[in-house]
Amino acid sequence: QVQLVESGGGSVQAGGSLRLSCAAAAYTYSVAWFRQTPGKEREGVAVIYTGSGGTMYADSVKGRFTISQDNASDTVYLQMNSLKPEDTAMYYCAARDSYTGFWYNSALYEYWGQGTQVTVSS
């Protein structure tokens, strides 16, 4: 049984940084971060393919966010730098036992964390 436990959210000023953690997850092929704001669809932020270490990012966060993994602790991180107010959202960790399909399609993910709020003020 895969269990995803998220942490690291908070409130920061624009330009600040946060590091989100997705911990205590059983082995899956892909672990992604999604974010969602009220009235908007869930948006794929980044994904890591745990076997290869390969990563992909949404254009909106490329160069600012970094997804990584610590295999020893079975934890996936999302380092968020140069945060902008438009990054404000509930961030979710998601996982699936597959590689195919568009990584940013939330419907493909079978395991989800509870979400952690990220608020970036001007």
The CA-CA distance between the termini, in Å, is 41 Å
What's the pLDDT, averaged over the residues?
Answer: 93
| Major sheet attributes | 7 strands, mixed
Helix content: under 10%
Structural class: mainly beta
Question: Taking Cα atoms only, what radius of gyration do you get, to the nearest Å?
Answer: 13 Å
Please state the overall shape, judged from the principal axes of the Cα atoms: globular
Q: Count every helix, treating DSSP H or I runs of 4 or more residues as helices.
A: 0
Please give the number of β-strands. Answer: 11
Percent of residues in beta strands? over 45%
Uncertain runs are: none
Topology pattern, helix = H, strand = E: EEEEEEEEEEE
Account of the protein in words:
The protein is mainly β. A hairpin with a 6-residue loop joins strand 4 and strand 5. It is globular. The chain has strands spanning 5-7, 10-13, 18-23, 30-36, 43-49, 55-57, 65-70, 75-80, 89-96, 111-112, 116-121. It has no helices and eleven strands.
Task: Give the tags.
mainly beta, seven-stranded mixed sheet, 122 residues, 11 strands, four-stranded antiparallel sheet
Structure summary:
The chain has strands spanning 5-7, 10-13, 18-23, 30-36, 43-49, 55-57, 65-70, 75-80, 89-96, 111-112, 116-121. It is globular.
Q: Helix and strand layout, with pairings?
A:
Blueprint lengths: L4 E3 L2 E4 L4 E6 L6 E7 L6 E7 L5 E3 L7 E6 L4 E6 L8 E8 L14 E2 L3 E6 L1
Parallel strand pairs: 2-11
Antiparallel strand pairs: 1-3, 3-8, 4-5, 4-9, 5-6, 7-8, 9-10, 9-11
